[in-house]
């Protein structure tokens, strides 16, 4: 979001140690892709600044869209920007290695779940100070991700996570009604696997990139009005909704309706499985709508709400994520980097990014033109409006480690190494509490 046995919990929960462990593996990559901000003499003798912007956005936006935005910024300011675009999981690893080595790119794309760790390490800059120094009006920002009262990440665009469904697989299996509850989903996925040989559902549980816990597992809990927290603290034990969710997911694994290789699967692998028509259902970001459409233009799929626990009739929570942006503390050109951030967050540019990304803008004054948007995007927007946005991992201490340890304990339960969902959640609660001490 693969299994690790917890011999040294303190070490595994220490994000600094975790990052240092991967530095040796990626130091060569960082040396090539890390912050190598350059200054060259311009025609008038002034210094030309080139910023590096490391992110996964360029891979998921339409071809050339991010470069076009960057070129417009350069034309307006004279500041050049070198894009370092890689898939999400690779970007996370490279940014983490750069943070530990002090070679992070000047401007970095961030996931809200990374912010606490990087801020505490001192690897990303205090944006509150930079905005104040520049006289920036932050009231136009729809959200700011803060640590200890200071902003370290600004969400550029926000994504909803609806459930994707391959309608042709349902037709092939003779399923006429879209499942709305857990029992209906279990029945539908079992029928799909039995009659078509295809997977009913996919979940990426790679602990290398454990975001599957927030986006694909907890989305079941949140859709049924549940919560994993109580007043901002872990509340995994004696949590009827969460216990039921764990047991429900185990039931799907026991029924063998889950796409093979879940423990090693990353988000990109899941999307590929769906795009290639091998999976009937997945919960995924709207960011991949363009990718899937381009990869499989004839794929007949739709968006549906995540099915809810039987008997639940309240409003559903919809998992949301964002493309956040931050500035490296090691950057020698924070002033220019802040200008670039402000450019991306300007109403006109932010609206353009939102449209390109099939997302919702991070600037409250932005007015995206969705008139030409894909019909599926508009469908997802309707589902989003009918739900409440939620992601309880955003801004938590060692957020990604929380996902990872939950993932590890979940796998032990799925394999039968843990006797019950209650035992699994009790063990996870104890591990999580160490991060909140």
What does this entry show, briefly?
This protein has 18 helices and 15 strands. It has 437 residues and is an alpha/beta fold.
Structural commentary:
By secondary structure, the chain is an alpha/beta fold. It is built from 18 helices and 15 strands. The chain has helices at 9-12, 15-33, 57-60, 65-77, 88-101, 115-121, 127-134, 167-172, 182-196, 212-223, 240-254, 267-275, 289-295, 334-344, 347-357, 375-385, 399-414, 421-436, and strands at residues 38-41, 47-55, 80-85, 107-110, 145-147, 150-160, 163-166, 199-201, 229-230, 233-234, 279-283, 301-304, 317-327, 360-361, 388-390. A hairpin with a 2-residue loop joins strand 9 (229-230) and strand 10. Helix 2 (15-33) packs across helix 5 and helix 10 (212-223) crosses helix 11 (240-254). The chain is globular, with a radius of gyration of 22 Å. The model is unreliable at 1-13 and 15-37 (pLDDT under 50).
The class by helix and strand makeup works out as alpha/beta
Tell me the β content. 15-25%
Relative helix content: 40-55%
Overall residue-averaged pLDDT value: 90
Morphology call: globular
Alpha-carbon distance between the two ends: 24 Å
In total, how many beta strands?
15
Query: Cα-atom Rg, whole angstroms?
Result: 22 Å
Instruction: Count up the helices.
Output: 18
Largest sheet: 9 strands, mixed
Pick out the low-confidence regions: 1-13, 15-37
Key structural traits:
437 residues; alpha/beta; nine-stranded mixed sheet; four-stranded mixed sheet; 18 helices; globular; disordered N terminus
